[in-house]
Design a protein that fits this description.
Strand order of the largest sheet: 1-2
Structural class: mainly alpha
Order of helices and strands: HHEEHHHHHHHHHHHHH
Distance between the termini: 47 Å
Largest sheet: 2 strands, antiparallel
Length: 470
């Protein structure tokens, strides 16, 4: 697709326009999917905080994208260098209901790539789950969106960007920008934030597997929009991306299961969920530009190798809480490399090595992978250091959500209180009068903890020093 500035003479395609609108809605659905997916894997006292971190991304990135983000990512290129756009389209100036980008309304194109930005930043939250300070996270979302995501989006997604125009690497849906970008950022941010007290000491398990499955379902459903929307310019490209995404997810579940069985002689529900995500990640660079057979192979390889990659954090001593690096970072690398090997040429005209192409495309894929990965890592580390030195990135004692902690302790206390009141006559104590019960209820409400300082204000190992997740 071309940018709005080059689409004056384009002709609208109602089919493409309708599907891109649907694809945009599907990708936006991935944000709550990430929230539930991560929320099911953190401790009970951290669910609400995790959900808030993700939904803050939705609010903040939406405002930034409307104000200057879209203009800097897809506006006229500044100086013809392919590095960043200008502010000519700030606040969507000059874009109306009749403006077209390629064959679709520009306003739909704006929302489509807004959804990419939201999901990318949300993915990073998993790397510091359990120890992030909410104010520091908000500052990080603002800084990372402006300084890291928007420039990378211009490089890869805008036809005038240096990766698309000068390097010539293939990345239709964000294998570098979204997956490798979030993986490298997760590695840097987890390094800056430091380890939890129980890292390497406790077996980390999700406290709520049904919530994880719900999150995966929303993400899986949304990925069909993620991997198909950018392929609309080629007949059949979106349809092939749809099929390949499903095949890769299923094959990746099998690949992860093989690794899990080989290492532990068991395959759990969480293994299946993690495996499916790796397959969808690996298909992101070129889902519509490979054959179904290769999509299955790519998915299987991604699941097989990402299951090993998540254990590297223990060797490196980096507490990547929810394995953002091993799944999204490594899965994105697998996808970019395999695109250089097995691209059919139907989307870009550039064939991979296995289809009669030269080593040239593979070299371009590796160059884009290394450059964008390093850029995201270095910039994220700098942003994290500045935030840690100023307002703070890490919550002292671990991330404790006062809303969740308060409700859990209040529930436990009220349950005990009502149980005492309901004892039958002749038991250890006589039933309390109504006035005495009200007095005790008032005492519970006044003494229940209201935050991290509340002292024992949560159940299920909410503080990072209390042991592993339930």
């Amino acid at each position: 697709m071309t940018t709005a500035t080059a689409a004056a003479a384009a002709v609208a395609d109602s089919g493409n326009a309708a599907w891109l609108m649907m694809a945009s809605a599907l990708v936006l659905l991935m944000a709550p999917g990430v929230a539930f997916f991560y929320g099911g894997m953190v401790r009970t006292g951290q669910i609400v905080a995790m959900l808030k971190m993700i939904f803050f991304c939705i609010v903040i990135v939406t405002v930034l994208w409307f104000a200057i983000g879209y203009s800097l990512a897809f506006g006229p290129d500044a100086g013809g260098l392919g590095v960043i756009g200008t502010l000519d389209r700030a606040f969507l100036r000059g874009i109306g209901s009749g403006s077209l980008t390629g064959s679709v309304p520009t306003v739909t194109f704006v929302v489509f790539h807004l959804s990419f930005a939201i999901v990318t930043v949300a993915l990073i939250a998993g790397s510091i789950a359990g120890r992030a300070k909410m104010g520091g996270w908000i500052a990080f979302v603002i800084a990372w969106t402006l300084l890291v995501y928007i420039p990378m989006a211009h490089w890869v997604f805008d036809p005038a960007g240096w990766v698309a125009a000068q390097l010539g690497a293939v990345d239709f849906s964000g294998g570098t920008v979204v997956e490798i970008g979030s993986g490298a950022a997760g590695l840097a941010l987890a390094t800056v934030a430091g380890k939890r007290a129980d890292f390497e000491r406790q077996d980390i398990r999700p406290h709520n597997l049904p919530l994880v499955v719900i999150g995966l379902s929303l993400m899986w459903f949304g990925w069909f929009g993620f991997n198909t929307g950018s392929s609309l310019g080629t007949p059949g490209g979106a349809a092939m991306a749809f099929l390949n995404s499903q095949l890769a997810a299923g094959a990746a579940m099998a690949g992860w299961a093989v690794t899990s069985w080989w290492r532990t002689r068991r395959v759990g529900l969480l293994d299946m969920c993690m495996g499916a995500v790796t397959g969808l990640v690996a298909m992101t660079p070129l889902a519509g530009g490979v054959s179904p057979v290769w999509a299955s192979i790519i998915g299987f390889l991604a699941g097989l190798t990402c299951a090993f990659a998540i254990s590297w954090k223990y060797r490196l001593g980096v507490d990547d809480t929810l394995d953002v690096v091993g799944i999204h970072g490594w899965g994105g690398i697998v996808g970019m490399v395999m695109a250089g090997l097995c691209a059919t040429g139907t989307l870009t005209g550039h064939k991979g090595l296995f289809y009669g192409g030269s080593w040239d495309l593979l070299g371009k894929q590796l160059t884009a992978t290394v450059v964008l990965g390093l850029y995201s890592f270095v910039m994220t580390a700098l942003i994290g250091k500045v935030i840690e030195a100023t307002i703070g990135l890490r919550e002292p004692g671990g991330m404790v959500e006062e809303e969740q902690a308060y409700s859990e302790v209040l529930y436990d206390n009220l349950k005990e209180l009502t149980a005492d009141h309901g004892r039958a006559p002749g038991a250890d104590a006589e039933p309390e009068s109504a006035s005495a019960l009200v007095a005790r209820l008032r005492e519970v409400l006044l003494t229940a903890p209201t935050g991290p300082e509340g002292g024992g204000g949560q159940t299920g190992g909410g503080r990072e020093d209390d042991g592993g997740r339930k």
